[in-house]
Design a protein that fits this description.
The complex is a heterodimer of chains A (221) and B (106). With 221 residues, chain A is mainly alpha-helical. Chain A is 73% helix and 2% strand. The chains are: A mainly alpha (221), B mainly alpha (106). At the A-B interface, α2, β1, β2, α4 and α7 of A face α1, β1, α2 and α3 of B.
């Protein structure tokens, strides 16, 4: 989902930056509020960021014969709501843009929007709505993380299609082409991300009961 | 919890290993999806010139993999610290409970 440095026209790069910025601002505020109200969850927030750090560094092989990576932003979105992930995801993307030449500064806005905003919000929405319907914690967690990951890659495909419409088939044709690269490859990896998120959630349920109890987003309803 | 997690982790490993065998047979090169998207743009929009280049690029594949490994290590380190701390605390609380007359771990 990393759009490479310089691979978005300046107007698009700027526009996505403008769209993503308020989410990052809101994220900083919500982290500050979370730390003030529930200081005992600081370490868990750090662990959620660390989860995104590990997962987004793992380029995994997929059935299509190409490689891609999970994002790890679903876990934090489920635990703390989607807002803080804008900040944690941005930190991951900055690390990769500056040290790995993976992604870039001009595409940071677009990449932040797909990985640190769209993915977490989809994950959160899926989790919240399923949590009301089913009693289990594992099923909503799995689907939230899986669909959040897929959403990130679909947004990337959309961003690229908007910037590079196909000469003959236009925006729709370009979207199909970019989805062909990202979406199919991503399905098994999104499932992996869902499974790993459930693994961590299972651990938290048995070892971090008091922290989980203080998190509003886990409550049913 | 431990059994479920073992099964889930095994599934994750299978999801990564099976494609290696299946797709290699069908000529998969396992290049990155991100760079495939970049190649598609170069093909369909040859007139597009990236207008900004990475300020710093790892000088070699080795340095790049070093930094990727560093990213994973930082993340795994923090996550492992958290999990170890939690396990240790839970074990200590159980031990205190088991002591004759001790209930402070509750």
């Amino acid at each position: 989902m990393h759009i490479m440095e310089g691979y978005l026209p300046a107007a698009h790069a700027l526009a996505w930056g403008v769209v993503a910025a308020p989410f990052v601002g809101a994220g900083l505020y919500s982290i500050h509020k979370q730390f003030q109200q529930h200081p005992q969850t600081k370490l868990l927030m750090g662990a959620s960021g660390a989860f995104a750090f590990v997962l987004s560094s793992l380029k995994l092989p997929s059935l299509t014969g190409s490689c891609s990576h999970p994002t790890g932003t679903g876990l934090g979105a489920i635990l703390f709501g989607p807002s803080p992930m804008a900040v944690l995801g941005l930190i991951v993307l900055l690390f990769q843009a500056l040290l790995l030449a993976h992604g870039g500064l001009t595409t940071l806005g677009a990449n932040t929007f797909s990985m640190a905003v769209a993915g977490p919000w989809v994950a959160y929405a899926v989790f919240k709505s399923l949590r009301m319907l089913v009693k289990s914690l594992a099923v909503p967690t799995f689907l939230a993380a899986t669909l959040g990951n897929l959403a990130t890659y679909m947004v990337t495909a959309l961003q690229l299609a908007l910037a590079f419409p196909d000469a003959r088939s236009g925006y729709a044709g370009a979207l199909v082409k970019f989805l062909g690269i990202f979406a199919v490859t991503q399905v098994p990896l999104a499932v992996s991300e869902g499974l790993l998120t459930v693994v961590v959630m299972n651990f938290l349920v048995s070892h971090s009961r008091s922290e989980l109890a203080s998190l509003d987003s886990l409550r049913r309803g | 919890m431990r059994r479920t997690n073992l099964i889930l982790l095994t599934l994750v490993v299978l999801l990564a290993v099976v494609p290696l065998f299946l797709a290699t047979r069908h000529g998969g090169s396992f290049s990155g999806a991100d760079s495939q998207a970049q190649e598609l743009i170069d093909q369909t929009h040859p007139e597009y010139k990236p207008w900004f280049h990475a300020i710093w690029t790892p000088p070699s594949k080795e340095i790049e993999s070093l930094l990727f490994a560093l990213q994973a290590a930082i993340g795994a380190g923090v996550l492992g610290y958290y999990m170890g701390l939690k396990r240790g605390k839970a074990a200590a609380a159980r031990a205190r409970q088991d002591e004759p007359g001790g209930t402070e771990g509750r």
